[in-house]
Structures are given as structure tokens and as C-alpha cells.
Amino acid sequence: MNKASRMANASWETINLKALKRLPVYTLPPTYELQRDMGNCCAGDPPGYPTYFTRPQAMHVIETSDLRGATWEAHQARRDALMRRLWLPLPLEHPRTQAWIADRFKHLHSCYLNPALSGREQWDKMVFYPVPKWKLESFVDDLRFSEEWRTKEKAQVELKNSEIIANAANIASDYNHAAVVCIREYYPEFQPTRDQIDGKVETVGNWWEVMAVRPTPETCPGQHGTAHPVNGSWCQMCGYKIKAETKEEA
Question: Can you tell me the distance from the alpha carbon of 56 to that of 69, in angstroms, rounded to the nearest whole number?
């Protein structure tokens, strides 16, 4: 399959075509060339969101018109408002929506957002719980100093780590879970399950981004110019796992 395959298999059921047709037409300069594959700044967005259909050149036009010299927040707000107008959300219980929800919990497992922060800072200062070892302080010994110094330094490290863990535990409520925050941005009625919070979810590829139904291995179009199975032993597009199938057949 070539790069046009994913675009050719895309479903437009989530795009508000009336709103889309009201947008101004952009004339591409003769020295420009459009990216052939679609998808731009779309990572983590819900199924069928307009960002999965756009190309960098189109997004540049959308984001820069009438906003010269504006802040990043202003650009983002205008972009988000337009994407929402162009989007026709699928129901929360729809298979594509449920596949996206599983993907969010898998990708953001053990990730929490501090409600005292907002915007980019909230994501830049993401909290992990349980706290991984690389986020904790470590005692660094120095043979030049006494055992008394070691005892004191170790106590300070333990105190600091207990504070880090306590702070993370305080933030790590179900509704501060990064996946829950992300999902509720589009589906405010969403209620997480214990298994979802604990990361006990199964993902099925990323076909749900633009395709109406999950393809079979025989009908999978592949992705970004790579034929099925995209990752060799498993397919990122349809979620098919070759090794698992081989074991079942054996």
C-alpha cells in the first residue's frame, strides 16, 4: 500500500463538512508542495478529530491568519475553537471512542496532573505515581566524611523522598489522572473504572483515528508508507499481533 492508503480509507463521518466548506480557500504557491500523508499535531486527540486530516501547510494557514504577533496561548485557543467547530463527536460508547480511551490510559499510565497548575505548565510538570526511582533523591557517599555525616545525609535524603512521595500521593486522585483529564476535555461525562486507572487496558492499534471500523490483517492499509504489519511483529494500525496469532495456531 502507498502513502495515500490511509487517506483513501479515512471516514469523514466526524467532520462537519458544512463548516469546512465555509473556510476560505488557500492557493498553494507554485514552489510549495503539500505533504501527501495527513495528520498534524494530532497525538492524543479523540477519534476523527480534524487534526488527523490536516497537513502542516494547512495548519500553518489556519494558525497564522489574523494572529500575527499573538501569544502561543492565543494561537492555541483559535486553533482549538476551529477544530471543535469542524468536529462531529462520536458517542462515548462508540467502539472508536472506547479504543481511544484505552489508548489514553495505556499511554498515560501512572501520570497525573497537578490541579493547582494549568495549561502547558500542568503537562510540563506532570506527576508520576507510584513515584519512579529516577524521580527520587539518592544518597551519594563520600569517603572523606565521617559516619555521623553519612547518617545525617541519609536521613535528609529519606526525608526529601518521603515529601516527594507524599506530594505525589496527594495529587494522584482518579480525577487528576492525565488520561481522565484528557478524555473529559471532550467527554465531560466520562467516569473511569478501576482497571483503567490501573492501566489494565488492551489497545487495538490506531485505526480509530480516521477509520470507521477496525480493519482485518487482510484489509489493513498500513501506515505512513509502511505496509501491514507496520512494526514487523505487530501492526500499529490495526493492532494485529503476529506472534500471538502464531502461538494460538500452534
Answer: 20
User: Could you give the percent of the chain with pLDDT greater than 90?
Assistant: 64
Helix/strand/coil (H, E, C) string of 37-93?
Answer: CCCCCCCCCCCCCHHHCCCHHHHHHHHHCCCCCCCHHHHHHHHHHHHHHHECCCCCC
| Averaged pLDDT for residues 23-35 | 79
Is residue 131 assigned to a domain? Answer: yes
Average pLDDT over residues 109-130: 95
- For 139, the domain range is 110-193
- Grid cell locating 188: 465531560
116 in a structural domain: yes
* C-alpha distances in Å from residue 206, one per residue of 191, 192, 210, 242: 22, 21, 8, 17
pLDDT given at position 67: 52
Say whether 241 sits in a helix, a strand or coil.
Answer: strand
Contact 6, 209 (CB under 8 A): no
Q: Judge contact between 115 and 210, C-beta under 8 A.
A: no
* Helices within the chain (DSSP H only): 4-8, 17-21, 56-64, 72-86, 95-107, 119-124, 147-171, 178-186, 194-197, 242-249
Q: Is position 66 within any domain? A: no
More confident residue, 32 or 241: 241
The owner of cell 501512572 is 110
Residue in the structure block whose three cell numbers are 460508547 = 93
Please say if the pLDDT value at position 193 is more than 80.
yes
Backbone angles phi, psi at 61, to 5 degrees: -65, -45
Which residues partner with 111 through β-bridges? 128
Residue 74: inside a domain: no
For residue 105, the one-letter residue type is F
The total of structural domains in the chain comes to 1
Model confidence, pTM = 0.83
